[in-house]
Design goal:
It is a single chain. Helices cover about 35% and strands about 20% of the residues. The protein contains 8 helices and 9 strands. It has helices at about 20-30, 60-70, 85-95, 120-130, 140-145, 155-165, 210-220, 225-245; strands at about 5-15, 35-45, 50-55, 75-80, 100-105, 135, 170-175, 185-190, 190-200. Strands 3-2-1-4-5-6-7-8-9 form a 9-stranded mixed beta sheet, with helices on both faces. Strand 4 (about 75-80), helix 3 (about 85-95) and strand 5 form a beta-alpha-beta unit. The structure holds 3-hydroxy-5-(hydroxymethyl)-2-methylisonicotinaldehyde (PXL).
Length: about 260
């Protein structure tokens, strides 16, 4: 364990503080990890809707990254919403020399369905960034976009994970949160399949669930925890955070990021 574990999020801004880089930083802090952030895009949003998205120029993204990594330590990083192919390419060039695990959360849309990634950028994500990823964490919709397969049950999840492994990430975790029944996630790593189950929690307040989940995993990796432990911690954290969501705002509110998971 590092004396002060440090994690980095490369993600979009959600000014409502429930998702995006704001959620990531809160989660890093809550898990005892010093958090840094590189902004890729700005959203104008509240719990009701995303009103606008502005993607930064790739040179601004890479300049932020270079400023941080030429100065501060970093023990794990994650990516969230990346906006477009040019931003992804800039990050991918640098990710080749990361000496710490990179978690790629292939965010494609906001909670309300607003696109946070161009269609053409999906190919760039797969071809350029996935080879440097330690872990990718697609949900069912993202797994479908990434593979062109229908992914709605465990058998298809296993097939899709094996398909995505060919793009180069060391581990693939497909989140089954939108399956019928219990939430079952499927991990494919080192040629092995493993399932992680948790109870389904009924709540309208799910804004930032995916960001929170991948941020907990990244924080645990920054503390040198093994991947399976990190996933278990993330599932427990998200379950508790959903169960005790503070019901803020008039739309789909944030989770309770004060839990101990
Ligand atoms: O949860 C996906 C996500 C990621 N990044 C930003 C978002 C959202 C969802 O709303 O706003 C900036």
């Amino acid at each position: 364990m590092h004396s002060m574990p440090v994690a980095l999020t490369i993600a979009g801004s959600d000014p409502s503080g429930g998702a995006g880089l704001q959620a990531d930083l809160k989660v890093f802090h809550q898990r005892g990890v010093y958090g840094m952030s590189v902004v890729t895009l700005l959203t104008v949003q509240n719990t009701r809707a995303v009103q606008n998205v502005f993607v930064l120029g790739p040179e601004m993204v890479s300049a932020q990254l270079d400023a941080l990594l030429s100065d501060l330590p970093c023990h794990a990083a994650k990516t969230g919403a990346l906006g477009n192919a040019r931003v992804i390419s800039e990050i991918a060039v640098r990710a080749k020399s990361f000496r710490f695990p990179l978690v790629v959360d292939p965010v494609m849309a906001s909670q309300h369905g607003q696109a946070l990634l161009d269609r053409e950028a999906v190919t760039t994500l797969k071809k350029e960034l996935f080879p440097s990823a330690f872990l990718i964490t697609p949900n069912l919709d993202e797994a479908e976009s990434l593979t062109g397969m229908k992914v709605r049950d465990l058998t298809a999840m296993e097939k899709a994970a094996k398909c995505m492994a060919q793009d180069g990430p060391q581990a693939i975790l497909i989140k089954g949160g939108h399956l019928e029944g219990d939430a079952v996630d499927l991990l494919y790593a080192g040629g092995k399949v493993q399932l992680f189950e948790s109870r389904r929690i009924k709540t309208a307040h799910t804004h930032g669930t995916g960001c929170t989940f991948s941020a907990v995993i990244t924080a645990e990796l920054a503390k040198s925890k093994p991947l399976e432990r990190a996933i278990q911690t993330a599932k427990a954290f998200v379950s508790q955070a959903l169960e005790s969501s503070p019901k803020l705002g008039q739309g789909e509110g944030p989770l309770n990021l004060f839990v101990n998971g």
